Write the structure tokens for this entry.
Amino acid sequence: MRYVVECLARDGRPEFVDAVQELAALLRTNGLGQTVAYLKGKGKDSGRHAAVYKALGEWLCGSRSNPRHPERCLPAGDLYEQILALRQNPRGRALYVAATDSARRLSEALKPLATAYASASATGHDATPAGSERLVRSEV
């Protein structure tokens, strides 16, 4: 939960919120590999897709500053490159499935918080990450 709130604090722009809401559908429809390729291709400029690609990469590949990240399924590095490298890994299929499940969990956690963050911002309520977390808890 803390990572989701940090993403919103860093990238809580309306464009990021729109891309987060699109992420679950992309993963369900296209799978992880195609979704990552799409986000990387669309995110060449620093737009909404780049922010979601960065959040997903940090989530799945961990952070160099936090190598014991709990959801780190793939080695540190660029997410797209790590997914391509799975083809040469003997455990590649198992790692890909674990990474896909983890990406889905992230998208499911980001979506309601991003929606709450956007609605709080639009109505003039506390749009800080802590305020968004309180808003989501009160809706549950």
The longest helix spans residues 92-123. Residues 135-140 have pLDDT under 50 and may be disordered.
